[in-house]
Amino acid sequence: MNGTLKRVAVACLAMFALLMVNVNVLQAVRAEGLSSDARNTRNYYDRYAVERGRITAGGKVILAQSREQKNSDFRFVREYPEGKLYAHVTGFFSPESASQIEASRNKLLDGSSADLLLRRSIDLFTGEPTRGANVDVTINPKAQKAAYDALRESGKRGAVVALDPKTGAILAMVSLPTYDPAELSGTDKGTVFKRYDELAADKSQPLLNRNIDRTYPPGSTFKVVTAAAFLEDDPSRDGQTVVDAPQVLDLPNTTAGLPNYGGAACGAGQVPLVFALEKSCNTPFGKIGMELGYERMEEQAEKFGMGTQIGIPMSVAKSSFGAKEDQAAVAQASIGQRSNQMTPLQMAMIAAGIANDGKVMKPYLVNKVTDAKGDSIEEAKPEELTEAVSSDTAGKLRQMMVSVVQNGTANLAQIPGVEVGGKTGTAETADGKPPHAWFISFAPAENPKVAVAIIVESGAANVGAEATGGHTAAPIGKAVMEAVLNK
Amino acid sequence: MSEVAEAPVLMPAKRRAAQLAMLAFAVVIVMAAYANVGLALDGQIPAGMLTYGLGLGGLMLAAYLVLAKFAPWADPLILPLVTLVNGLGLVMIYRLENSGSKLQAGASATQQIIMTGIGVVLFAVTLIVLRDQRMLQRMTYTAGLIGVLLLISPLIPGLGKEINGARIWIGFGPATIQPAEFAKIALVIFFAGYLVAKRDVLALAGRRLLFIDLPRARDLGPVLITWGVSIGVLVLQKDLGSSLLLFGGFVIMLYVATQRTSWVLIGVLLFVGGAWLAGQLFSHVGDRFDVWLDPGNQAYYDRPFGGSFQIMQGLFGLGAGGVMGTGLGQGHPELIPLAFSDFIFPATGEEIGLTGLMALLMIYALIVQRGLRTSLAARDPFSKLLAGGLSFTLAWQVFIIVGGVTNLIPLTGLVTPFMSQGGSALLANWILIALLVRMSDAARQPPPQAIQNEGMTQVFQR
Predict the structure, then answer these.
(1) CATH no. for residue A446?
(2) Could you give the ipTM of this predicted complex?
(3) Any catalytic annotation for residue A403?
């Protein structure tokens, strides 16, 4: 019987070999897929098993932190000491998802990133529990507060974003209405999901980060881009170059014309470019757009960064000058209407680019990532995104924008003792609601420290002297710039 | 009986000291695992650790002493290996009991350690009472009868109890036992005794049909009847795992006894046919196949009965454990339904990882290997067949349940030997181990020396 017994032994060996191979397949090859399966509730518990890193602003103000709780299935819960103020910066950390920085820097925050491998290995030997890395954002807490308060005072929905023109660091990012991240970051799925569904269904879209998640027609603020294209086209031109400014611009192949705001005249039909910008006349810029043509305008828009995929690290919706149509469309797009769509961040990049001698810096939100012991993991390195205009053109544009604040529609943004450059906008919306109020600006003009873009949804009145963006949006810009400049 | 004349492969040393050292090592590993769980769950070494450790150590010392006295030549590796697996099972059950999860409400480490104690007592009693395994050969038909009676006992009204939809328990007041676990051993003894007696006629007499040599019906009859009744009863009780276990064990023993490959072919054909028929007849068998082929399917996952929820939880656990495991007490094996019984393997795998499971499977493989080695070295055909049959049954059981919970084969419920909570299986397996130890003792004893001046006279050692 020994012969057959030996064969049985081989069969037993084969059975164990099969089991071992199968376990290897499951725990080594398929492990990643199985453990990340959405139905694997371990992920739910594991989310709260490690001490997640802090999110801070300016290295001091704590925006999000994990607190240990005893005798609970969930060891660490997330707290947001600043609440609503930073909701669209930190995002939330819910049982199954996360948003904004909590989502885009998740692997660093929960300590699972490959960049933290060394730290984890050391912890393994010293027996210390794994802790996530801390993320410091570029937000200037004073500017953030000023932006939030000022925008809230308007009582409208809107967005404010401020950049450091020289680096691209985001100094403030506020979107209203907002929400309390703590409400979406509890451990009880039922409560959190119910609240999330409420917020998601809310028509005012509080979950939306209006600075980067959606686009608006930029209105007259886009005229600085048209002016930039005009100046770049011929280096001999400047703010004093005289341009045609008819009362109504005839649009080819249409019965309608392009009027100025409220149908008003713009000077005596022939005005210097700077005057057209100060008074925000439509007809000269519509005419310039048509003369330069779609390609030149589109090219200038792209030079300011439009159409480039940007991650700050959250990905930013793409802005666009609009698809190529007829000349009438080019004229309308050149004054920021028609299918011209910009994110507030893109508009801030335009202001910042002009302030920074024509160079648009890549915007970023994460200043520094340090591990739990304080060792640096990554540090922001400012990068040039594009060169939008020549230094010369940028200088001329700055002068004109300063003039807009001093003599034109943006007088409410004046800061005593500081040269401020800016441009207001009033963007008509298709659905007959009051137009959006816009303002982009930078300060100080000769050594820029801050550039801002503000949109107040339906913030402008339909008619009247105070109907432009200058009335609602410019004071918000002023408040943010003052906060950054410590005025 | 040519094998009897062959010189058996012998390890002349008793290796008792090595066995004691390994036994102590196994107990130390278990105590360390126990401390590990306590530290992970509450941040302190569990208060009962010394009691548990000393309890387990004491039990194993008693088993060792009985073995040293009554089976001094026994294989030194079997008892330490079994102790280690049994102890790891205890640690996992303790860990699951203390998870506080409702899914693990049935887990009770105290009950399991009491059962381990009784198991060791049965181990000792078997060794003491059964001084020669050939006594069992004389009880061939009695064993067969006992096996069948045990199998059908749950179907007897008043005696049988239905728990969780399966009628495989019998109850005496509060105590319940699963007679199929014991029937398994009785039937293997019956098969071994019967096949040894009839193997020559089974192998030689008969007609040739196509390319298969069929034995005479009267030779095969009793075996087929016993086998048919066993399988039939098990299928009626919806105990798929046990029927598969018996079926495989039977086919292999037939093959070993008759040395005919045709038996394996017939067995496989019978099995495939039977499985197909069962799949057509019983929806619960068909469901198992569907789930096996596509366990991740959302429709099966959501099915309240016979779905893939449980097996997927096990696979999620294994995935979460990965190569190194989460560490004892640091994973979430309590999320797997029945993690303390049928699904203890993936639950353990989550916490000790691929590395630990390889070691665990290796331990099982070693136990089986020691059993098969005993079978090869045994001097009489009955011992060979019995040891071979029991060892294969053990390996086959590990394959069926571990393969089932890791979705290598369709899932059929069975306990993981020595690990899963469940008194009957634990007791039966300790008896199985006692039988292997008894036979290894006989096989490893030095052959009786011929008395030179007495010519042909031989002395048999009893």
Answers:
(1) 3.40.710.10
(2) 0.91
(3) no
